[in-house]
Each structure stands twice: as structure tokens, then as C-alpha cells.
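Progress note, sequence design subtask.
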């Protein structure tokens, strides 16, 4: 399963970041770009990231900045590796607490391959999904270990099976007054149980620090107590699915109040995270007011969204990154969704005693979806694929155990173990061990008189075929869904195909086309977005920038001024106006625009850098250096700021510091030709021609036509040759002079070419008569 998942998601290594959260949340976030360090880690724990308090997710991106300077391949691969790890953990968890190997494998495979999960894996910004689920599953595994220890049993410890006489009765676990005082510790027995209990609480805290959606974990633990752990009083036989005469329970049962006391630390952490999340999202402006999204709209959307999630789980088509919010759903859709949910709920309640997995799977799906179902409206979307990453596990359990029940029926009406194959009427040693450990949740072994009865072959074949077909369909649909995440263009063109009247995808496409310098192509998309939403800030910005790059500066200012008049001061708008003013050589207005942007957004690295450029152009290198330094504090990986800082060091007579800054710029951005040429020139000036030559060669590889646009390049090679001569390295001097002569001829500089021919002749003579050092 892990290998297939790795191959399935292998294309993501070629995917790009998308202009939907990846930009503001990762690429332009100054602290993320700094990488892991004391300052950035402190920031992660004391500030919001992408509207939430999620320090571990922020730190994982900081680690990416250290490892790959936020190149897109590794962050995508990291998401895939977490997804594979989560699939394996899910299999191990279910196998250990149910003993049902193949059903657990089926659930894990559905989890790994369902197309609903493509968004959580292929979108780098959704690292919080895969990371939080990693800790979520580890929390459940630690809790399961704790349960086994607290009941005096361990994995594989067959000697500790309870006899019928030692069955724990309700009276033996009655709550004493001291239980309330001691809280959860009243049920923790033994050193190992303490270790696993504390591990579960700690892992839960780590999960919450990855994504707040895990606040429902205490309720998930209670669901597991009901089934398959069977810890709730009166559930020992019914959970196992056995008959009353099979009440030689394999696990102790406890009063619900005692189990609630056990969960106090989990509930405390959940309540704390709820408070932090509500405050964080309100301060970030992400929460919609009731005046914008009324309560009745939220309730209607919640009901319809549950039904839509169900439908797309079993018929996953038209999966997109953005589902537009609907304020007024048609009454028939609300009624239909409500009837569907009510019917399913009634059905699972009726079957709960005989088939508890139906109830647990359904409540898992409903409950874990509550934080993101839209009752507290965050963002513009009605629903999102990423919200299903954990909730779908409940539906997958329901389906897997349901399919097993279908083929577990025998002619005699006895329900043999669904894990047995046809003709295998004796439980395997593994299942015997699971039964001994109180982990087997299927029905007991049939009576001797029915051992010869086999499940109907047709039912086995049909159910197996259905399961295999489901997995194959998931693989095919996921493989088809993945390419939509290749880049911003493919992602939002897919949204346009599904929701053609939604402004957001048109604006995002326009922005992506602008980034690819396809300005004329971007304008129609920006216009469409503005037609659908006339006050769309991002669309105005993109439209204005495209007009500017096409030479239409006055219409560009009209777009920027429209945003300022509609929404007031905006850092990005002022920054864009600064770019336009600078291109018109209106330096004072450009400086004022960049200063306005920085007043609104002090950590705007690019604004610091451009303001510094203007100051340097006016000869104020001291103040310019301060701005470049500020830009590097905000974004240590901004190569242009390193390049400009090098200029300031050069002006101040510090060549070595200038070389260091240029080397950093080239290391961050190897294709930065201008920085390579400047670095090579400084190295030649410092008497280090051997270090300079590779940078000149790299610049020519990157830009073969460089001589035509940079006529000074031929002279630079002439100086390089002279530097080699000073070191008596005449062979390299000849090579440099030959290259310089070619560049002089290509750039149409006959005088320089004649001069270099003379130099080349001299160098060849020197190389012939003087020894090579």
C-alpha cells in the first residue's frame, strides 16, 4: 500500500506552489523564509500563522526553508511522506484495537487513495492536515496502549485474559468521592499506563499545535471506548456482537462518568484551543459576522454540506479547491439533505447494538466535521475537500466492516469471523491471540454443529469484487485529480470549468498569467472577475499591473485608486503604485508610495528593498543600506536585497563583504545572472580570477545572448584574462581572451575586438615561452 501510494503521488515532485495561501502563508512570510532559529521559533509560538495558532505547522515550513530554500519539490514530497505514514498508522491502529487485519487494510487503502484527499496532500499549505493527522493517529495509538495497560492486559499478553468470575462489574468500578478529586488519575494504574496516558495527552497537544481541528479528539476517544474497546458499562457483549451466553467478557467495562473523568486533560486542551482559535481568527478578520452570513444560512449550509460530503465520498466528481459559499440554498435541497441525514442516523441507531461500528463510524464522520462545517464561518468557501481528511475515516470504517458483514453470513445463520477465508473454519493463531487480548470484535466462533457451513461463495466473490473495484476506482480518480494541482493555472481553470460564475478562480488565473509575464492574456480574466465582483481587490491589483506592464500607466492608476476609494489604504496597492512611479522616474512619489506600504505592513521585504534602491539611486547609500538590512531581516532569502546590500558595501569600500553578499544572492538564486556578473567582477578586482571564471561561464550558459544585451561583458573577459596573466596563468588567460574576442565580435565592437586580438597574441606568446605555474 505504501509503495502504490508513493507511485500514485510521485508526480507532485514536479508541482509548483499555487497562488492560493502558498504565497502569503509560506513564500512571502518573513519568519518562514528565515528558517528555523530561536527568533522564528519564538515567533511561531507567539503569533498567528495563516489565521490560526499552529506553531508546529509553521516550524515545519521553516525547516523546509532550511533544507531547500522553499523550492517546491521537497515540501510536496514531505506532504506525501506524511500521508503515507498516516495510512500505515491508521492500519496499525485499527488492526491493534479490532484484530481485523483485512478490514483495517481496506480502510487504510481507502484513506490513502481516495481522491477527496488529493487536496490535503498535493497542496503544500495543507501541511497542517497531514501533520495534525499524524499526531492524531499517534494519540489514538497511545490511548489504546493505555487502555490495555490500565485493564491489566498488554499486546499479546494471553496470560492476562479475564475469566468469567473475574469480570469487572459496575459495582467494582463505582466512583468514589476521591475519584472526583483525583480526576483522570483515579483510573490510571501502574507505571506503564501512566507513560502511555501522558504520551496520549502530549501527542494530542502536538496535534492541536499543528491544526486546531483536532479539538474533537476527546469525543473520538469516547467513541473508541464504546467500540471497539468496549469499555462502557453494559457494552461488553453487544460490542463484540456475541450472544448473552458469551458474557465471559474480554475487557472491563466502566461507568461513563469515570471515562469522562479520564478525559479531563483532553477536554481542557480542546477548550483552550477553541478559545485561542476563535480569538486568532477574529483578529485576523477571517470570521464572517452574522450580518454577512446569517445563522439560518449557516445551519442550512451545514446540513447541505454534510450531504454533499457524503455524495462526493461515494461519487467523487467535480472536486475543486474552492466551493463558493451559498447564502440561500433551495428549500428542496435543505429538506432532502436533512431527510437523508435523519434517515441514516435513525438506521445506525436501530442497528447500534448488533452492529456498533455503524454508529461509531457515522458519529466519527459527523462529530469530527463539526469544527469546519460552517457554523462558525471562516473564509469564503461553503465546504472544502481538505476538511474530510480525518472525518472520512469514520465512513471508511462503516463501509469496511459493513462489507465484511455482508460476506460473513453462513447458511445456518451463524456469523463466522469475517477475516476467515472460504473453507477456513478454524480461527488462526493470530486471531486467537487477538481474542485473548480482548481485541477481537467480530462474532464468536460458530458452534461445532455449524463448523462445516461455509459462507456463500457468491457473496464472497461479489463483496471482494466490490471492495477491489472501489480501490481501483479510487486509484484511477486520484490519478486523474492530481494534475489539476500542477500549478495555479491548472488548479483554477478546473474551478472555472465547474463553477463558471465565481470570481475567485478568474482573479487567480489572471495573477498566475501575470507571474508568467503573459499580461495581455491575463487582462480578460481580471475583467471577468471584476464583472462578477466589482470591488475585488486582487483583481483590481492584477489588472492594474498588467496595464502598467503593457505601457498603460494612467489606466493602471485608475485600478489602484479604485481599491483605495472602495477599501481604504492597502499595502499591496501602495507598493504597486510605487513600482509604476519608479518606472516613470518619479522617485519622490515612488518613495512615498513604498513608505505608505511599509507603514501598513512593516515586514514587507520587497517594499524595503525597492525603497532602498531609490535611496541608492539618489546617492544616499547609508539610508539605503538600512532599508536593505530591514529587507533581509524580513526575508533572509531575498536575493535582490543581498545584491543591493553588496552595492552598498562596495560603495563604502568593503569589497570582501560585498563578495559575501553576492555569493549569498547566487547561492539562493543560481539563475541570478546580474549577481553572477557582479560577483565575478568583484572577484577579478580582488585578484581571484580562478573563482570568477566559473561565474562568467555560468552566466553565459544561462543567457547565451548575453553579449548583445550587455556590451561590457567582452571587456569583463579582457580584464579576467589580464588577471590570469598577473598570476602567470597564461593558458587560462588565452581561454578568457578567446572568449572575450568572440563576445566582442558578437556585440559589434570592432575596436575592442582589435585590441583583444593584440592581447590574445601576446598571451599566446607568453604561454609558449614561459612555464605554466
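Output:
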Amino acid at each position: 500500500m505504501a509503495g502504490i501510494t508513493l507511485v500514485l503521488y510521485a508526480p507532485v515532485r514536479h508541482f509548483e506552489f499555487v497562488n492560493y495561501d502558498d504565497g502569503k502563508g509560506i513564500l512571502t512570510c518573513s519568519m518562514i523564509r528565515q528558517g528555523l532559529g530561536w527568533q522564528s521559533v519564538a515567533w511561531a509560538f507567539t503569533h498567528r500563522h495563516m489565521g490560526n495558532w499552529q506553531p508546529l505547522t509553521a516550524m515545519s515550513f521553516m525547516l523546509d526553508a532550511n533544507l531547500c530554500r522553499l523550492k517546491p519539490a521537497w515540501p510536496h514530497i514531505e506532504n506525501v511522506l506524511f500521508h503515507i505514514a498516516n495510512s500505515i498508522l491508521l492500519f496499525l491502529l485499527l488492526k491493534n484495537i479490532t484484530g481485523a487485519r483485512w478490514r483495517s487494510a481496506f480502510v487504510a487503502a481507502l484513506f490513502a487513495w481516495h481522491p477527496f484527499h488529493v487536496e490535503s496532500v498535493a497542496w503544500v499549505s495543507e501541511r497542517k492536515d497531514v501533520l495534525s493527522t499524524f499526531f492524531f493517529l499517534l494519540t489514538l495509538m497511545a490511548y489504546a496502549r493505555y487502555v490495555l495497560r490500565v485493564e491489566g492486559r498488554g499486546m499479546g499478553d494471553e496470560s492476562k485474559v479475564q475469566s468469567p468470575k473475574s469480570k469487572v462489574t459496575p459495582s467494582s468500578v463505582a466512583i468514589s468521592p476521591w475519584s472526583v478529586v483525583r480526576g483522570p488519575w483515579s483510573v490510571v494504574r501502574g507505571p506503564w499506563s501512566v507513560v502511555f496516558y501522558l504520551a496520549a495527552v502530549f501527542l494530542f497537544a502536538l496535534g492541536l499545535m499543528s491544526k486546531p481541528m483536532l479539538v474533537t479528539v476527546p469525543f473520538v476517544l469516547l467513541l473508541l471506548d464504546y467500540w471497539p474497546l468496549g469499555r462502557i458499562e453494559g457494552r461488553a457483549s453487544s460490542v463484540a456482537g456475541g450472544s448473552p451466553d458469551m458474557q465471559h467478557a474480554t475487557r472491563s467495562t466502566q461507568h461513563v462518568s469515570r471515562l469522562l473523568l479520564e478525559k479531563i486533560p483532553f477536554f481542557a486542551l480542546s477548550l483552550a484551543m477553541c478559545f485561542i482559535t476563535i480569538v486568532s481568527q477574529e483578529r485576523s478578520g477571517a470570521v464572517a459576522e452574522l450580518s454577512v452570513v446569517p445563522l439560518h444560512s449557516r445551519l442550512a449550509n451545514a446540513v447541505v454540506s454534510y450531504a454533499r460530503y457524503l455524495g462526493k465520498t461515494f461519487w467523487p466528481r467535480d472536486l475543486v479547491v474552492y466551493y463558493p459559499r451559498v447564502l440561500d440554498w433551495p428549500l428542496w435541497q435543505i429538506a432532502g439533505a436533512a431527510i437523508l441525514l435523519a434517515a441514516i442516523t435513525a438506521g445506525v441507531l436501530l442497528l447500534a447494538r448488533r452492529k456498533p461500528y455503524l454508529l461509531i463510524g457515522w458519529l466519527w464522520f459527523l462529530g469530527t466535521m463539526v469544527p469546519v462545517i460552517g457554523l462558525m464561518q471562516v473564509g469564503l468557501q461553503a465546504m472544502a475537500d481538505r476538511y474530510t481528511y480525518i472525518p472520512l475515516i469514520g465512513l471508511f470504517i462503516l463501509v469496511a466492516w459493513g462489507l465484511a458483514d455482508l460476506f460473513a453470513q453462513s447458511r445456518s445463520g451463524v456469523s463466522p469471523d469475517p477475516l476467515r477465508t472460504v473453507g477456513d473454519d478454524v480461527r488462526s493463531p493470530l486471531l486467537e491471540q487477538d481474542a485473548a487480548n480482548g481485541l477481537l470484535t467480530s462474532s464468536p466462533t460458530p458452534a461445532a454443529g455449524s463448523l462445516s457451513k461455509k459462507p456463500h461463495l457468491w457473496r464472497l466473490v461479489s463483496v471482494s469484487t466490490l471492495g477491489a473495484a472501489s480501490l481501483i476506482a479510487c486509484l484511477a480518480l486520484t490519478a486523474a485529480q492530481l494534475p489539476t494541482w500542477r500549478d495555479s493555472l491548472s488548479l483554477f481553470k478546473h474551478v472555472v470549468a465547474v463553477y463558471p460564475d465565481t470570481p475567485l478562480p478568474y482573479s487567480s488565473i489572471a495573477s498566475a498569467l501575470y507571474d508568467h509575464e503573459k499580461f495581455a492574456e491575463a487582462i480578460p480574466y481580471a475583467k471577468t472577475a471584476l464583472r462578477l465582483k466589482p470591488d475585488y481587490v486582487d483583481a483590481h491589483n492584477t489588472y492594474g499591473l498588467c496595464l502598467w506592464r503593457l505601457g498603460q500607466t494612467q489606466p493602471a492608476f485608475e485600478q489602484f485608486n479604485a481599491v483605495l476609494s472602495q477599501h481604504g489604504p492597502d499595502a499591496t496597492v501602495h507598493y504597486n503604485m510605487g513600482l509604476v512611479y519608479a518606472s516613470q522616474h518619479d522617485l519622490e512619489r515612488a518613495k512615498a508610495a513604498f513608505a505608505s506600504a511599509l507603514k501598513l505592513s512593516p515586514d514587507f521585504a520587497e517594499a524595503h528593498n525597492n525603497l532602498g534602491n531609490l535611496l541608492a539611486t539618489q546617492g544616499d547609500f547609508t539610508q539605503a543600506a538600512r532599508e536593505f538590512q530591514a529587507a533581509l531581516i524580513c526575508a533572509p532569502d531575498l536575493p535582490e536585497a543581498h545584491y543591493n546590500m553588496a552595492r552598498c558595501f562596495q560603495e563604502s569600500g568593503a569589497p570582501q563583504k560585498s563578495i559575501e553578499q553576492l555569493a549569498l544572492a547566487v547561492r539562493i538564486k543560481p539563475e541570478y545572472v546580474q549577481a553572477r556578473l557582479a560577483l565575478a567582477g568583484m572577484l577579478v578586482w580582488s585578484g581571484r580570477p580562478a573563482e570568477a571564471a566559473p561565474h562568467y561561464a555560468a552566466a553565459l550558459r544561462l543567457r547565451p545572448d548575453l553579449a548583445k544585451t550587455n556590451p561590457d561583458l567582452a571587456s569583463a573577459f579582457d580584464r579576467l584574462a589580464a588577471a590570469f596573466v598577473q598570476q602567470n596563468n597564461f593558458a587560462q588567460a588565452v581561454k578568457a581572451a578567446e572568449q572575450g574576442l568572440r563576445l566582442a565580435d558578437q556585440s559589434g565592437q570592432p575596436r575592442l575586438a582589435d585590441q583583444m586580438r593584440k592581447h590574445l597574441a601576446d598571451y599566446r606568446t607568453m604561454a609558449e615561452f614561459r612555464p605554466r605555474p
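The two ends are 61 Å apart (CA to CA). Work on this subtask will continue into the next period as scheduled.
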